[in-house]
Task: inverse folding
């Protein structure tokens, strides 16, 4: 447990309060109020990312604390895209996702500032980590959107909606993690000497990528005839992402070259 | 014939292969980097990779004929990466008098060397480079000392390692290069990396700081990079194609496609 009494901590807790307020307002069916709170939460999240960047004097993507902080700031624009493009309201899902992301930031990870070691001083740092931040968020949202597909009495309209929303989201997420993987590999070539060294985190990222490969081929093969299988693979993918971010980063079994977190 | 071919390289097989590769790389994650690299350079692993590459190529060409360019680029890009990696692994077995793929040298200021070494103490001779390297100076730069550093009485963290070297290639004028972490220097087919450093004593018992430079030659690198470009374009087209699909407006009894 690590409660932060700094300005940074204040901004994080403020973001969480706004997210919670948005959820509560939604519970009382106050739609406009929900949107105001959700937007305020976004502003607070952006403020905490910007403050972190100013405070540390580098792009705030060095460790899990900064990585998760960026993730929370990505959510509001995605909600807007979903609304404009598909006409679906994902505020509740996104707010819950945001809270889940911010709990470790607020209460688990330390916020001490570390100056960038030589290995991280590269122009590829921000694009590589940034595309993974955005990609992981999209994959998590895709899994949330596929939730109705587990229902037993699923109507065709519901099925089509859930499948479409989740497949579009996961295709963007897949693109982003592919770009992240390629950029990471190029960076590995420049920094460590080889583009692929079977570093534990590399291997897990490849496993995640392949899990989504399974999803796309299943979708191609069976269409939407096996909705639960499709949704299950989206959740397996997210499980891999969560494992990559937590277990692989923090456990000593997987000590590799990605040990910056 | 066509049926058998479709069975052999159909989406069912693709699902299986993706699943196997996913599970396999999790196993490799448990093995760790060093053991995985060794395992992946054994003949069965190389053979399996070649098989996967072959299937990817066949599938890629098939989708190309069906004008599904996103899928074709993704499959052919993967195949290109695997082939480039394979060639990087097996090239010395096929090419006579191939230069060493990998090696390091430890230098103190003023040393001149063109031999590559390996092993924990760089004692095993690997081979000779087609050029010589002279270390002009090895420099370590630190961050400015912060208040916290001063109150704890410790050195600020290291900001930069830099080896300034003079490279002499045969029949060419020698020139100076700076080798920094993240910014390797490309000379005569080799990437030269700032890999490590340490402190030791010279033969008169004076302390000296040495730098370790790593030299890596990868004959398959171009194919791998070409594969990356194809993957990048392929995944971009794929996402755009799916994103442009409109949300279906269905009545309850309409069939979902």
Result:
């Amino acid at each position: 447990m690590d409660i932060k009494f700094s300005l940074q901590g204040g901004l994080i807790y403020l973001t969480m309060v706004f997210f919670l307020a948005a959820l509560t307002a939604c519970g009382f069916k106050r739609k406009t109020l929900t949107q105001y709170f959700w937007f305020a939460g976004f502003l607070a999240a952006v403020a905490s990312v910007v403050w972190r960047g100013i405070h540390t004097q580098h792009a705030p993507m060095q460790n899990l604390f900064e990585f998760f902080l960026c993730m929370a700031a990505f959510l509001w624009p995605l909600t807007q895209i979903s609304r404009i493009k598909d006409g679906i309201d994902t505020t509740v899902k996104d707010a819950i996702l945001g809270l889940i992301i911010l709990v470790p930031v607020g209460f688990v990870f330390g916020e001490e500032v570390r100056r960038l070691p030589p290995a991280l001083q590269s122009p590829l740092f921000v694009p590589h980590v940034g595309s993974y931040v955005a990609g992981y968020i999209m994959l998590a949202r895709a899994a949330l959107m596929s939730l109705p597909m587990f229902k037993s009495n699923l109507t065709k309209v519901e099925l089509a909606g859930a499948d479409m929303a989740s497949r579009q989201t996961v295709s963007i997420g897949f693109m982003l993690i592919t770009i992240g993987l390629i950029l990471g590999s190029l960076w590995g070539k420049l920094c460590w000497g080889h583009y692929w060294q079977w570093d534990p985190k590399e291997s897990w990222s490849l496993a995640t990528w392949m899990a989504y490969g399974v999803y796309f081929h299943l979708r191609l093969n069976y269409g939407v005839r096996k909705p639960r299988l499709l949704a299950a693979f989206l959740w397996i993918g997210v499980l891999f992402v969560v494992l990559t971010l937590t277990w692989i980063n923090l456990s000593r079994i997987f000590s590799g070259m990605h040990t910056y977190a | 014939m066509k049926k058998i071919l479709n069975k052999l390289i159909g989406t069912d097989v693709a699902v299986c292969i993706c699943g196997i590769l996913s599970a396999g790389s999790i196993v490799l994650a448990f093995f760790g980097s060093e053991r995985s690299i060794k395992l992946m350079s054994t003949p069965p692993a190389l053979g399996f990779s070649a098989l996967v590459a072959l299937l990817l190529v066949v599938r890629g060409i098939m989708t190309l004929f069906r004008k599904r360019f996103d899928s074709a680029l993704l499959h052919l890009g993967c195949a290109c990466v695997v082939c480039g990696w394979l060639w990087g692994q097996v090239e010395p077995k096929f090419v006579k008098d191939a230069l060493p793929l990998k090696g390091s040298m430890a230098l103190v200021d003023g040393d001149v060397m063109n031999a590559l070494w390996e092993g924990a103490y760089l004692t095993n001779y690997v081979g000779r480079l087609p050029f010589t390297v002279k270390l002009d100076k090895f420099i370590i730069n630190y961050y400015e000392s912060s208040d916290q550093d001063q109150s704890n009485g410790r050195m600020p963290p290291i900001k930069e390692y830099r080896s300034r070297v003079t490279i002499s290639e045969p029949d060419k004028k020698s020139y100076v290069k700076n080798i920094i972490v993240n910014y390797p220097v490309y000379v005569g087919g080799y990437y030269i990396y700032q890999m490590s450093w340490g402190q030791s004593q010279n033969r008169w018992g004076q302390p000296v700081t040495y730098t370790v430079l790593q030299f890596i030659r990868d004959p398959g690198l171009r194919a791998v990079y070409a594969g990356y470009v194809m993957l990048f374009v392929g995944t971009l087209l794929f996402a755009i194609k799916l994103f442009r699909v409109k949300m279906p407006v269905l009545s309850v009894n309409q069939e979902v496609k």
Summary: The radius of gyration of chain A is 19 Å.
